[in-house]
TrEMBL record, chain A:
Pathway: Glycolipid biosynthesis; glycosylphosphatidylinositol-anchor biosynthesis. Belongs to the peptidase C13 family. The keyword Signal applies. The lineage of its organism: Eukaryota, Fungi, Dikarya, Basidiomycota, Agaricomycotina. This is GPI-anchor transamidase. InterPro entries: GPI_transamidase, Peptidase_C13.
From TrEMBL, chain B:
This is PIG-U-domain-containing protein. Belongs to the PIGU family. Pathway: Glycolipid biosynthesis; glycosylphosphatidylinositol-anchor biosynthesis. It is a multi-pass membrane protein. It is found in: Endoplasmic reticulum membrane.
Length: 403, 412
């Protein structure tokens, strides 16, 4: 049988030699690599929301700071962030203070219609636990292994974090519990650590203290949007007093923000720009500021609920009678456009929010039934055709041979 | 000693049953049952899963090396085939898998005819083919589009050519098979023996034409080398070797399957891993020589036993391996009187068939069981396979002694 080497076998031997001697054929096209990279780490949308609400003051005469923070707490809870995703740091000495004429309550308004303390708040760090060290450890995640889960900031790279701080402050510092200070540099470094550890997708930093805008002046990490209540050398003022409680019950900046947020609910499409446009220095009695140079998206495209709420995204798929357990032909989430670049998910074209919008037209998800045609990947197809053809030819030849 | 199988089928109408079973397969693959079963751990292993095949094809067609990650473990030849000639779309896949099962059944029929003369038992072959198609061990993996059904087809087709004394196609198909299922390389030894001495049981030890044996083995080696070259050409580099053959030996993927390896290696300390991987991989090797030597007179039976051993001790088996082995018993009706515990073996298989999906569900879906439940059912499955092998071995040896009028065979 080996007396004459058939030509087909010779061709195959040549194929074999070429396969062995040539260098690697995989020149992964940069286009396809980009596409795959984009699939695995696409331009980010957040998938979960966290809030860190810090009241850095204690004592009865700082009642308004407690009210600020509890008002923010109520708002973010109302808009959907669960307690498990809220870290509330309070001195918590207002509601049950012996001076409180209305015990076990905290009000942010003189009409005393809305009790912010209620029966259902979860304070994670209370009393003397609200320290600079704990705050920075919380943000950076460098906590003791014995620290309970409810006290940890368990964010990931797709979390949008809302950090709200209130208390007494000054030029690039914030006073913590009449005892110590945190500086703007410390917070900036903590946020940078968060960025490097991929602990946030985007971050909204809101601060209501005197000279608050200086607190965000030192940030240098990307994806941070910051707003503060007053400029350098400016005080932030309380809004009004309650005659029966005897102290100021709310700060001006936070009061107007909460008032605006009372008009919003989970389905609100109001943007951050709408919120910031309501800043009126005459009303607030100080110049509230916004810092958005580190923030990539234009503010008129960022919804308030991206930070202050937890609005889930829902993908509504056509109902066509498939059984619940059947996973196939519903996947292929990769959208293939002709230009081989993934379309960036904008607020309009992204999958649906809680409100049912019609599914956007555009690139239909590629189903298994359509043939997959890509530009520029001819080489691997050619290789496959060549090898498949050779193998099938060999099989056909040997099967039909008489031997 | 031919046994007349009950309900012997006659004539053309007998073909209706396999035809119906094939049509049933075609229909069920296109039904919602198929996607539901597609990733079932008993039916599709990491080496045979259709979902992984689709993923690999997609990656390949986008210029990304599918062997860079740990997802795709099919051979590059399968990759080439499914990214060109056979697109993995439902209609084509249904046709391909049905055709593969049809080829398996037809090959089984041909093997039966070569082994047992149709004059003594005209309908037995068709009955055997129908039973192969109806066996749920083979039926379910086909519905799940597991490429182990295609492996079965390759094996049975290779065996068919072997019993017809056509060495070239036989070793070619075996070489092709060894790319999807590395332990099947061991079947080369009995295959060569069948080519040399025929498919029937002989009364004397047949003479071996050594030159011809060497030629056949050399041809196998040439085909292997050619396919290795073609695979490297398709894959673009040598990474496929570690991901496909390497997976069989190194067990990187501990997805549960009905085999005996995965649980053992989930609880293994890393410093023992190489030793046990070595022993588990080399284990089937020790059976080749003794079985082939003991059954020189009946190399087809040696093939059958070795296939059983491979099915039982594979690193990533599926139910179709057991299905193939159990179906091959029908080729040896002379064993039936000599089985010592057929009821026990049958019940073990029944137990395993019931327990495997049940405990899998309890462990992974309901959450009321744990992995040990499923592991226990794989042990029962392994015991069932082992009992089949051992009983067949005994029956094979006993049947060579035969019967003589007025004499009793006793064991001293």
């Amino acid at each position: 049988m080996f007396a004459r080497i058939p030509t087909g076998l010779l061709a195959l031997l040549l194929l074999l030699l070429s396969g062995l001697t040539n260098p690697s054929y995989v020149l992964a096209s940069s286009q396809a690599e980009q596409q795959a990279a984009a699939f695995f780490s696409p331009p980010q949308e957040h998938t979960n929301n966290w809030a860190v609400l810090v009241c850095a003051s204690r004592y009865w005469f700082n009642y308004r700071h407690m009210a600020n923070t509890l008002g923010m707490y109520r708002t973010v809870k109302r808009l959907g962030i669960p307690d498990s995703n809220i870290i509330l740091m309070l001195a918590d000495d207002a509601a049950c203070n012996t001076r409180n004429h209305f015990p076990a309550t905290v009000f942010a308004n003189a009409d005393r219609k809305l009790d912010l303390y209620g029966e259902n708040i979860e304070v994670d760090y209370r009393g003397y636990e609200v320290t600079v060290e704990n705050f920075i450890r919380l943000l950076t995640g460098r906590v003791s292994p014995t620290l309970p889960r409810s006290k940890r900031l368990l964010t990931d790279s797709r979390s949008n974090v809302f950090v709200y701080m209130t208390g007494h402050g000054g030029n690039e510092f914030l006073k913590f519990q009449d005892n110590e200070e945190i500086s703007a540099f410390d917070i900036a470094d903590a946020f940078e650590q968060m960025w490097q550890k991929r602990r946030y997708n985007e971050l909204l930093f809101m601060v209501d203290t005197c000279q608050a805008n200086t607190m965000y002046s030192k940030f240098y990490s990307p994806n941070i949007l910051a707003t503060g209540s007053s400029e350098l050398k400016e005080n932030s003022y309380s809004h009004h007093n309650d005659a029966d409680i005897g102290v100021a019950v709310i700060d001006s900046f936070t009061h107007y923000i909460l008032q605006y947020m009372e008009g919003q609910n989970k389905t609100s499409k109001a943007t951050m720009k709408d919120l910031f446009d309501t800043y009126d220095p005459a009303r607030i009695k100080s110049h509230a500021g916004v810092r958005s140079d580190l923030y990539p998206r234009p503010l008129d495209q960022v919804r308030i609920t991206d930070f202050l709420g937890a609005v889930s995204k829902v993908d509504v798929l056509p109902s066509d009678g498939r059984p619940v357990g059947a996973p196939e032909e519903i996947e292929e989430p990769l959208q293939v456009a002709e230009e081989v670049v993934l379309p960036l998910p904008t607020a309009e074209s992204s999958s649906e929010r809680v409100v049912m919008e019609p599914r956007p037209t555009g690139a239909e998800p590629l189903s298994v039934d359509q043939p997959v045609v890509f530009q520029g990947e001819k080489k691997s197809t050619l290789r496959a055709w060549g090898a498949a053809g050779a193998v099938l030819a060999l099989v056909a030849w040997r099967l039909s041979a008489a031997s | 000693m031919p046994i007349r199988l009950p309900g012997a089928l006659k004539g053309r109408s007998a073909l209706l049953i396999p035809a119906f079973l094939l049509l049933l397969r075609f229909g069920l693959i296109l039904s919602p049952l198929s996607p539901w079963l597609r990733d079932d751990h008993q039916l599709a292993s990491p080496l045979t899963s259709f979902t992984r095949l689709k993923e690999g094809v997609w990656l390949f067609q986008n210029g990304i090396d599918p062997y860079h990650g740990g997802v795709f473990r099919h051979s590059p030849l399968t990759l080439a085939l499914f990214s060109t000639v056979i697109p993995p779309i439902p209609l084509v896949s249904a046709f391909v898998w049905t055709a593969a099962d049809g080829i398996s059944a037809w090959s089984l029929l041909e093997i039966w005819r070569a082994r047992i003369s149709p004059k003594t038992d005209p309908a037995g072959g068709l009955m055997l083919a129908s039973l192969y198609l109806a066996n749920p061990y083979n039926f379910a993996p086909t519905i799940a589009l597991s490429t182990s059904s295609l492996d079965n087809s390759l094996l049975l087709l290779a065996l068919r050519f072997t019993v017809l004394q056509r060495a070239s196609p036989a070793v070619l198909l075996l070489a092709l098979l060894s790319f999807s299922s590395l332990p099947s390389v061991l079947l080369l030894a009995p295959l060569v023996m069948i080519i040399l001495s025929g498919s029937r049981s002989a009364t004397t030890i047949p003479e071996i034409d050594l030159k011809k044996a060497v030629r056949v083995v050399a041809e196998f080696a040439v085909y292997m080398a050619a396919f290795v070259g073609a695979s490297t050409f398709v894959a673009g580099s040598w990474g496929w070797v570690l991901q496909t053959w390497g997976a069989t030996v190194m067990l990187p993927d501990l997805t549960p399957n009905p085999g005996l390896w995965w649980y053992f290696f989930t609880e293994m300390f890393d410093h023992y891993r190489p030793f046990f991987l070595l022993t588990f991989s080399l284990h089937p090797l020790i059976y080749v020589a003794p079985i082939c030597l003991k059954f020189q007179h009946d190399p087809l039976f040696a093939f059958f036993l070795l296939q059983g051993i491979i099915s039982t001790f594979k690193s990533y088996p599926t139910l179709s391996d057991a299905g193939l082995y159990v179906s091959l018993i029908g080729l040896f009706p002379e064993l039936y009187p000599y089985f010592r515990h057929p009821l026990v073996t049958g019940l073990l298989h029944l137990h395993a068939a019931v327990l495997l999906p049940l405990f899998h569900y309890l462990w992974l879906d309901a959450g009321t069981g744990n992995a040990n439940f499923f592991y226990a059912s794989t042990l029962v499955f392994g015991l069932a396979n082992g009992a089949t092998i051992v009983d067949s071995l005994w029956a094979g040896l006993r049947s060579t002694i035969g019967e003589k009028e007025g004499w009793d065979v006793v064991q001293l």
